[in-house]
Description:
This protein is an alpha+beta fold. It has three domains: 4-232 and 375-393, Hypothetical protein af1432; 233-315, Growth Hormone, Chain: A, CATH 1.20.1250; 316-354 and 398-430. The protein is built from 22 helices and nine strands. It has helices at residues 24-30, 33-36, 58-78, 89-98, 107-114, 118-127, 131-139, 143-151, 158-164, 170-183, 192-198, 213-231, 234-255, 265-271, 277-282, 285-295, 301-312, 326-338, 343-346, 388-393, 407-411, 419-425, and strands at 4-13, 17-23, 199-202, 205-209, 317-321, 348-351, 372-374, 380-382, 401-405. A four-stranded mixed β-sheet has the order 3-4-7-8. It has a three-stranded antiparallel β-sheet with strand order 5-9-6. A two-stranded antiparallel sheet has the order 1-2. Strand 7 (372-374) and strand 8 form a beta hairpin. The longest helix is centred in the middle third of the chain and has 22 residues, at 234-255. It starts with a strand and ends in a 5-residue tail after the last helix.
Amino acid sequence: MARLLMEEKVFKDPVHKYIYVQDETIWNLINTKEFQRLRRIRQLGTSFMTFHGAEHSRFSHSLGVYEVARRIISQFERNRYDDWPSEERLLCLCSALLHDIGHGPFSHSVEKVFGTHHEDWTCRLVLGDTEVNRVLTEADPELPQKVSDVICKSYGKEIVVGLISSQLDADRMDYLLRDAYYTGVHYGTFDLERILRVIRPHKGHIVVKESGMHAVEDYLMSRYQMYWQVYFHPVTRSSEIVLRKIFERAKRLHTDRYAFQFLMGPLVGLLDNEMTIEDYLTLDESYVQMTIMQWSKERDPILSDLCARFLNRRLFKYAALDDINEAMEHELRAGLLACGIDPEYYLEIDYLTELPYDVYRAGDEEESLPIWLLDGRNELVEISRKSDIIRSIGSIHGGKHHIYFPAELVRNAESCLSPEMRRLLGLDER
């Protein structure tokens, strides 16, 4: 049984104006050390190098996801919808609040190097010997496992999972609005109030009234624009690539038993892929940035150079090409190597894809939960069957190839690349 606070707590928030906490369990979770750590993890990783205002934290986003989920559930309860399982209220709120608790510093960049996944760490923190686990267990001994199941999308009720993780969920609705606000762009704005009014529980699904279809179209277009204008911005990608190369180099040096001048305990666990929960909680972004500053003074010229580039925003240049074949890639790598530039750490060929909406295909077990419309006959219709706009953007698969490289080093190596390759890379432009 959920216990209410004697007096509700209120957070002032630039996106939702106010965030309300009435449940004692939610308040206690917010005050755990594992959740407070999210104040020290940026929501958008290295995007602050492109959009200087993008300094907001996973803490503020997690509170925002909780608030969106709370408002959706409140609307369900006010309207007394029979299809809403009211006994799942606390589970939904806890899952919304904790869904990102396993994110590490610059998480997506670091995850690619070490093969870790923040969802796995979220479940370890929820199920392990942590303050979060103790708070959940105090409320209900079965709650930690249920929260873990919701976050891992294995919980038995789709309506609960869909509220937290689907193509129209509390997570996406908050991060689009929050990221647009802090980056200073308008691409991510959409009518949240309208969407919240037309969401319904129906036969085990989260659905949208057909009259709300245009608001959902606007939301999906906002998501499409945010990915290509913010999340996939080439400068942000460049900073992510440099950061990833730093840890790839550090991992290689550690494997080769290089004697680091600076390598503290949690970093050893990271490089060995044998981190304890305590080690993981220590590695916030301040710790990693301090490490990069120390590594900029290392004897290894590649590691020190990459770290200095990241610290001082001397990022890789990029060239956009419609296509790049194997022969072009071989010429580029061979040319850099001939001029003493290691392509393993100073070259990246990037091709990004992101579907704004995954059109539903029956029988596809890997498919994200679709967006269902509730039509006038009280029947469910997958939204792309009604919307030409969504069907159209659902077929967009990707952009151009981007080649990232240190322009000042490559430009000085005139004899290493053919005139045609130099032209494609824009090296002769002034």
